[in-house]
Amino acid sequence: MKYIEEFLKKEKPSGYYNKLLEELGGLNRKFGAFNFINKQISAGFPMSVKDNICVKGMETTASSKILKGYIPPFSATVIKRLEKEGFSILGKTNMDEFGFGSFGINSETPAKNPFDETRVAGGSSSGAAIATAILKYHVAVAESTGGSIAAPASFCGVVGFTPTYGLISRYGLIDYSNSLDKIGFMSRSSEDIRTLMGKSIGKDPADTTSVDAVLNNVSKQRLVIVDELYSKIDKNIKSSFDNTVKKLSSAGFKIEHLSIPEIDYSIPVYYIISMAEASTNLAKFTGFKYGLKVDDFSKGYNDFFTEAREAFGEEAKRKILLGTFIRGASVRSKYYEKALKIRRAIKDKMSSFLKDSFVISPTMPVIAPTIKEAQSFTPLQNYSMDLLTIPSNLCGFPSISLPSDYLNGLPVGIQITGGQFEDMGLVSFGEEWEKSFKYNFKYNLGDL
Amino acid sequence: MEDAEFDRLLKVCRLKVPAKQREKLKKDTDDILRYFDKISEVKCDDVDPAFHSIDIPGQYREDRQVKFEDVEGILKNTKTYRFFVIGPKI
């Protein structure tokens, strides 16, 4: 279903946007989807923007206290491109601070799942997924470093698309990890993802890592299940996934199991690289230029800087400590350089069989945990939840997360990964999937 | 990690944390580094590191020198403290 096309064709009653804003305010208080709602919206297709993507004149905090009050004087390239095409900003969505989290709870306002508010919405693009799940005519601009689009999309029952690294300009994104960050989208249908991609990709002189590419609509009939990932899935998810695979097999797909021993190391490799890069990116928040300002100039440089950094949340501090340590001269080759080599090995291995197949897996290894359970997880337990989304993100491969089942009323998703620049092949897969599987939504705000 | 080494790391990172949080962060750091040590099992000395997930040739911007005319105008937006000039925050 093309929600964008349908919305544009339909007559909007007078006061449509005011009514939408009013209803959204109530649900936002319940689920914590938005950090900021744009009450000025009065035309265009509603689009939300993750709060680590800059929008001119709108407070952009990446859900961090250290950026409170930061109002960018410019918009990210992706936002400029979409605004030109008739999309209007509905607001800035909640997220884990700087993208540091898998559950959407590392934020001043922990995000809640629209299917069960005692459960997490997933992260770090938690608000983007909630907004997509509650608003009928809406798309979300989100961002993924290690699974921050796929995880919340899966927990909230929406489509989450993470493009090939570099296809969408990162200019205007508050970096978490430069070599891993990708701006992508969430929507209620794969066809809307196709529309968004068509209007936002391409080289941007302001981002030297952005690329121009010809996107082929590749079609593949071979789906690969990676044994090392499959063996670590919760049994309820495994049973649901097996049923999905049976359906795909009946539809003509050839299913194969493969082993990639190196993939077992993808979690430590991902966290080493991302922490090393995050610790340098966070150094720019000094309490002086962006957001929070420390006014006591009589302090020495170290005290001034140290006072400002008290505003970071605990996970940010953990990443600064570990990232700084592993970049140290005495251990750099043991951790950081080794991780970069293993990334290459995993990428080469995956590339070899992605030539004629897609990889399929559940998106998350568990159903959405309760907020209480997630708050009790150790950092390592948290990191291990990303095991299925990290390999594609680590290697810059595109992936799509599609709702595939509902267990006790809670959505679960499948993730399809393609080779670099095979983005549209994944979108086509989603479009085919949606012909036979109907998505459920509990809310349809803004229906016409 | 020894206590002294962890305290030095906190100082290098310009982080000051309460005692209880320090203990937690130290334990987490030790646990996570032990977990990271797992990568030493992989033999890949002859593999080139992948600094990026896609191969991007190095790109440099041309340096351009331009004359900025409104020096007095830009200073109207600043404060001074001792011998420093303080610009407005964004």
Walk me through this protein's architecture.
- Chain A has 448 residues and is of the alpha/beta class.
- Chain A is built from 16 helices and eleven strands.
- An eleven-stranded mixed β-sheet of chain A has the order 1-3-2-4-6-5-10-11-9-7-8, sandwiched between helices.
- The model of chain A has no long low-confidence stretch (mean pLDDT 96).
- Helices cover 37% and strands 7% of the residues of chain B.
- In chain B, strand 1 (79-81) and strand 2 form a beta hairpin.
- Chain B is flat.
- Classes of the chains: A alpha/beta (448), B mainly alpha (90).
- At the A-B interface, helix 9, helix 10, helix 11 and helix 12 of A face helix 1 and helix 2 of B.
Secondary structure layout plus pairing:
The complex is a heterodimer of chains A (448) and B (90).
Chain A: H1 3-9, H2 16-31, E1 34-37, E2 45-50, H3 77-84, E3 87-93, H4 126-134, E4 139-144, H5 150-156, E5 159-162, E6 182-187, H6 190-200, E7 222-226, H7 227-230, H8 235-250, E8 254-258, H9 266-281, H10 301-308, H11 314-326, H12 333-354, E9 358-362, H13 371-376, H14 379-384, H15 390-395, E10 399-407, E11 410-417, H16 423-436
Parallel strand pairs in A: 2-3, 2-4, 7-8, 7-9
Antiparallel strand pairs in A: 1-3, 4-6, 5-6, 5-10, 9-11, 10-11
Helix pairs in contact in A: 4-5, 6-16, 9-11, 9-12
Chain B: H1 3-12, H2 19-36, H3 71-75, E1 79-81, E2 84-86
